[in-house]
């Protein structure tokens, strides 16, 4: 897949500009869902697998739904799950998160801003408004598929193909994100580094490296330009953590 086709696919699939959905609406029939990406990430701490994240990204009538669940490596029991829905313009429709030990949260638009509703393990509820635009990205602490969607948004908005190479805005690009579990908004920076050879499950692959940084963290992410810019690997050196697509 060349850069131009790949970037167009990202814009269509993730941001939801879907001609097929419009055609389906005209016939008063729901358009069939399109699977954008699905699979699992293995989460390794000091070389030992501790969690598995199963995920799927689907699109129907332009709406993108990002579902994920975390399972413990030892027992394969689900410990957390989430669902994120966004419009073709990247606006939040709803974000839901829950854990098996109790407790849940929901983020919804409140006019043009965001509101978070939290239910604790004891059943107590609270609400908190955020003066953030409803196009702000949800960046859950624990789900790496949200980082994939953030990278796609960056590539679609700030990069273009020139003579077969991907050219992005000079320097890092800032995004406002909401971290629901921390009940906090923050600014993160995304920057394309370039092509690198990376080992994935014992095989060397040429992937695109993207740096994701914030005030107190620095992550390295690698995506596959030959396979619709899917996230393949994440390194978090400060936590001795590596995430690899299965």
Features:
246 residues, mainly beta, 15-stranded mixed sheet, two-stranded antiparallel sheet, 3 helices, 14% helix, disordered N terminus
Helix/strand structural class: mainly beta
Number of domains: 1
The number of distinct β-strands equals 17
Distance between the termini: 22 Å
Largest sheet: spatial strand order: 8-7-6-5-4-3-2-1-17-16-15-14-13-12-9
What is the typical, i.e. mean, pLDDT? 87
Low-confidence stretches: 1-9, 15-27
Strand residues, percent: over 45%
Main sheet makeup: 15 strands, mixed
Number of helices: 3
Backbone shape: globular
Short description:
Helix content is 14%, strand content 56%. The protein is mainly beta and 246 residues long. It has one domain (3-245).
Which helices and strands occur, and which strands form pairs?
Layout: H1 3-15, H2 19-26, E1 34-45, E2 48-60, E3 63-72, E4 78-86, E5 92-99, E6 104-110, E7 113-119, E8 125-130, E9 137-138, H3 145-158, E10 159-162, E11 165-168, E12 173-179, E13 184-200, E14 203-214, E15 217-224, E16 230-236, E17 241-245
Parallel strand pairs: 9-12
Antiparallel strand pairs: 1-2, 1-17, 2-3, 3-4, 4-5, 5-6, 6-7, 7-8, 10-11, 12-13, 13-14, 14-15, 15-16, 16-17
